[in-house]
Structure formats: C-alpha cells, structure tokens
Amino acid sequence: MLFLLSFIILASVPAVIGQNLTYLTGLLQTLNASGLTQLASVAPSLNNTPSGQRILSTLPQGNWTLFAPNNAAFGALSSTDTGNTTFLTDTISYHIVSGNFTNETASYPNVTIGRTLLNDSSLVMLEGNKSQVLSWTKLGNGTTAVLNQNMNVSVTNTTQYENLEILVIEAVLIPPPNITSILTNGAYNLTSLSPILSQATLPGNTTTLLQALSSARGITVFAPNNAALSAAQSTLTNLTSNITALSALLSNHVINGTSVYSPLISSSTNYTSAGGEPLMFTTNSSGTYVSSGGSSTARIVRSDILAENGVVHVLDGVLADVQSNPSAASSAYASATSIAAVSTTQTGPLGPTGGSASGSRSGGAIELEPSFQVGGGIAILFSLLGQLA
Asked: What is the pTM of this model?
C-alpha cells in the first residue's frame, strides 16, 4: 500500500522522481507510523494540481514545520471537501510553515508568526503577493496552540522526519477570513465598526469604506473596540466641524500596504500611518500601547487577528490624533511598495529575532489613496457620531 501511495504521488512528476521518491516515501512511512493515516491517504491529491506538485518538490529543501491534523480532524471534513483537490491542496499548504520552530515558539501573550505555503490568490491578498501566515503560541500549561481558529487548536504530539518537524493537531486549520467576517464576529468586540464602515462610501462612487479596506493588498488596522467607540463620542462630536481633522483621525488608525504583525512591533520600531503620522509603540507590565504622533495612545487589547489581506489589532481607545503629514505618507508609501515587491523566502518566524529572509523585510507604511483618505474619513466619522448618539 505504501509503495502504491508513493507511486501515485510521483507518477506524473517525472522531474522530481529521482531526487524525491525516497524522501516522500519516508514521509508517508512516518505519517502512517504516527497514526496520521488520513493525512497520508489524502497526500496523493497534491499531485493533481500545479501548486500541489510545487509543494511535493519543495518539501525536501530547507526546513519546514507541518501542522498535521489527526485522523479525527480529517474525519470531520465533509465528503465534498475531501473530494475537492483544490480545497485539499489549499488546506494542506496552509498547514506547512517555512522554518523549524522547535526553540522559537513564543509564550502567551506573545505569539509566533510563520509564513505558510498558502498563496492561492482567491484566499490570500497580502502585499507583494506574499503567502499567508499562521499564528500560534505556547500557553501557560506548556501546550502549543494555533490561534485565529474557531477555538484554539492544540498540538498534541510532535515528531521529526529529516528536515520536517511534524506537530500533530486536533483540527483542520482554516485560512484567515476577510475583514468583513472579522468585524461581524462578536468574539472580537468590533461589531460597532461593521455597520459604520458598510454605510460610509468613497466620494464619487458607491464603494464603501469597508469594501476599500477589504480590497487593499496588505493592510494593518488598529481598530477601536465597541467600548472605545462609545467612550469617544464626545471627542468625535467636537471634531465634526473640522473636515481635515476628521480625515486625519481615521487615517492614523491604518497602515495600508504593510501587514504589521505583533512580533514586528517593539519600542525600537516606528511605522508611518496612512495620515503620515509616526506610530510608536511601548510595552510594559500592563501590555503594548500604540501612540499616534505622540499625542494619543491606546492599548492593544487583542493582537494579530489575521485577515486574508492583512492583520487587525484591537484597541481599547480611539487614537485622537488629528494631525497629518501627506509628504511623510507619500515617502513611506514609495519605500514600502518597493520593499514589498522584492521576492522573499522566510526561513523562520517573522520578527527581529526570527529566521532570516532572502531580501528585505518591509518596515514602513504607505498612504491611502487621497479619495479614500479624505472622503471616506468624513463619511465614516459623521456616520459614527450618528450611530453612537
């Protein structure tokens, strides 16, 4: 049976048979010996798509981590899913992360962010056509848990096969959703933003602000939670007569074109908001804080909510920075766009102390398009005031 599986996987990939047959046969043996027979049985489906064939030829090179769903996890999938080769290829690719993280998994509340092999354009819209990321952490009881799922997915066992660290998990991982799904998920306490962004439209067309955020390629949103929006009602009301200030306030909650995950945030790293203001960070015993222009600060109460096109960090306050610097925003835009276009291969966790990548890591922010920045800002904040009243 094992020989048959190996033959099926490699039969139509003659270019890699010679160098990879031994490796992939050994991998199937390891999966079966570890009780991961369902994963081993669906492996042949990778050979049915070009992206799956690339996975098979890539695995023997470098170091990789496989988050391997156990048999019960695969058994929970519908027959429609297991019979869909594209679904299976995308799903398996999201479980494979570049690098070995044996000694590099952060402890809660910090997280580890790794770059996966998932790069299907229908599921991923990150800057520079980068692959999607996965987030996990080590809990207080020592258990490693994958985050951003319907519930934390625990690692129940580990094994090693040559260059591949295999972490057995109790569920099949789901790739990040779009921003709309995040805002309407009550677990994140951002539901007050959803109707506001859905009603605010860009000037001159019917595109809503939520649609504009969702279509951006690579975006970081510092999103005030429900309580923060309610508490800021009087402050926002005082700004209704100042169009420029309202626009700046909105823009200073967004970094567009760059996905800034929490391991990339530290007191020594500054980013430029879409309004051109410096976003600075401090961390103490009570948490991590973001400051816009040095004039307004809020605490990040939940970090790294992964989206198909970026990341959302939840704040406990509104960044009431009404200053803007279009020149700085434009300069940061040009820099980050250039960096994002450089092809990179991540070899470890994202962050200043993680594995290296070939090429430069994007460290800046980019500005929003002027029509988005100004017109959308006015619409959203007037709408916000009306709904909070």
From this structure: 0.88
**Residue 74: CATH number of its domain:** 2.30.180.10
Q: Compute the distance between CA of residue 81 and CA of residue 290 in angstroms, rounded to an integer.
A: 41
Q: What range defines the domain where residue 116 resides?
A: 2-169
pLDDT digits (tens, 9 = 90+) for 27-59: 999 999 999 999 999 887 888 888 898 999 999
Per DSSP, helices labelled H in the chain are 2-10, 14-33, 37-42, 50-58, 71-75, 79-82, 85-94, 179-183, 193-199, 209-215, 226-231, 233-237, 243-251, 326-340, 370-371, 377-388
**Domains contained in the chain, number:** 2
Q: Are 384 and 229 in contact (CB under 8 A)?
A: yes
Q: In this structure, what is the dihedral angle of CA atoms 48, 53, 56, 61, given to the nearest 10 degrees?
A: -170
Residues 152 and 225 in one domain: no
Maximum CA extent, the chain? 74
Q: Are 289 and 360 within one domain?
A: yes
- Per residue in 270-323, pLDDT (tens digit) is 899 988 999 999 999 999 999 999 889 999 999 999 999 999 999 999 999 999
User: In terms of domains, do 154 and 234 share one?
Assistant: no
